[in-house]
Amino acid sequence: MWQRNSGRGWMADLDDIQPPDQLEGAPHPRETARLFGQEQAEAAFLHAYNSGRLHHGWLISGPRGVGKATLAWKLARFLLATPPDDGGMFAAPPPESLDIPEDHPVARRLRAGADGGLLVIRRGLDEKGKLQRDITVGVMRKLHGFFGLSAPDGGRRVVIIDAADEMNANAANALLKALEEPPEKAFLLLVAHQPSRLLPTIRSRCRDLRLMPLAGADFAGALEQAGVVENSAALAQLSGGSVGAAVTLAQGGGAEIYAALVQIFAGAPRVDRALALKLAESVAGKANDTRFAMLLALYDLFMARLARAGISGPPPEAVPGEAALFARLAPHDAAARAYAALAQDLGARARHGRAVNLDPAAVVLDMVLQTEREARRFL
Q: Is the Cβ–Cβ distance between 175 and 28 less than 8 Å?
């Protein structure tokens, strides 16, 4: 639901001002103290480790913002801090978790970005100092130089590629060679938001760790760890269980924007035109472009939830009054189909409006009036 224009979503605007694996205002994944809600993936990796079947390539996949980068750093910390079992009688017992104490030397070095056993590969900078759209083969050459060095203390070497689905074709082919002939004690952790974009030969050479959207206490705990303590229930619904998306929504007032949309249509068949105008004017001007993009994404979500309500009943409320509104506006399947078709048309019109620099306020008001016209058919 967050896909727009570039394919990386409106959250991609943040990439120009900070590392692509970190959300503004939230701790970097290497500094995140706890991974919430992904116990199944952690258990799968730990079982492979303790059973002596630890694969050299791991594909960490799932929606954006559910902890993939945090898990990659946790696995790297574990691999670099846990000494290999030499089979001797004084060997340490098998580890029972992937947790490493914060004061462990490896943990401290990783937080400082100073551990020679770890290489992080991500998009580089272009000649203007902006992040490139892809991971290029030039960036991927770091991998071969890294593997050509001796591992610190004869231990393991770990590579995090974030995000692997951002590699171009030449970079992907370079990675494939490393996966086919990995050095001893070397591990590659591939973070992927859209694993289907990876070469089938890359996917086949990796063990898959699939992460799921968060819910309930796990979502609330992860959100609080990221510094967001308000509107947890609303953000859970609006973000689809993605903490990353929820943080961005919280920073941009997403819950308030969505609540305004519900309030605008609360008196349907007539809309609250004064509130609609106020919301539209709040996204006018170049300085509000990010808020405009967020509003369009949330309008898409509003229409999608409205259409689904006509088929399966109102979803759990994101904001007060939403369920009652959807029950009135979408009482049957025919309404659901009509709203789904309208949503596609409105999305296309909004994208065209942004492309030709139409007044954002006019675009928003047009969307509201089109939806009002459709709602009158079912009230």
A: no
* pLDDT, tens digit, 9 for 90 and up, residues 233-263: 899 999 999 999 999 999 999 999 999 999 9
The angle that helices 169-180 and 137-147 make with each other, rounded to 10 degrees, is 20
Q: What is the DSSP letter of 378?
A: G
**Closest CA relative to residue 106, chosen from 79, 145, 143:** 79
Q: Taking a C-beta distance cutoff of 8 angstroms, is the pair 213, 73 a contact?
A: no
Angle at 301 between CA 26 and CA 62, to 5 degrees: 50
Neighbours of 124 (CB within 10 A): 14
* Class of CATH domain 10-210: alpha beta
Domain ranges of the chain: 10-210, 252-378
Measure the CA–CA gap between 58 and 42, rounded to whole angstroms: 12
Residue 84 tokens read as 């290999």
Task: Give dist(CA 72, CA 121) in Å, integer.
Answer: 12
- Please choose, from the candidates 44, 42, 43, the residue with its C-alpha nearest in 3D space to the C-alpha of residue 67: 42
**How many C-beta neighbours within 10 Å does residue 337 have?**
14
Q: Please state, in angstroms and rounded to a whole number, the distance separating the CA atoms of residues 373 and 25.
A: 41
pLDDT at residue 134, rounded to an integer: 92
- Given the DSSP bridges, would you call strands 186-192 and 57-61 parallel, antiparallel or unpaired? parallel
So what's the pLDDT on residue 22? 58
DSSP 153: G
Distance CA 224, CA 72 (A): 21
User: How crowded is residue 154: how many other Cβ atoms within 10 Å of its Cβ?
Assistant: 8
Question: In which order are the strands placed within the sheet that holds 157-162?
Answer: 118-121, 157-162, 186-192, 57-61, 207-210
Q: Alpha-carbon distance 291 to 127, whole Å?
A: 29
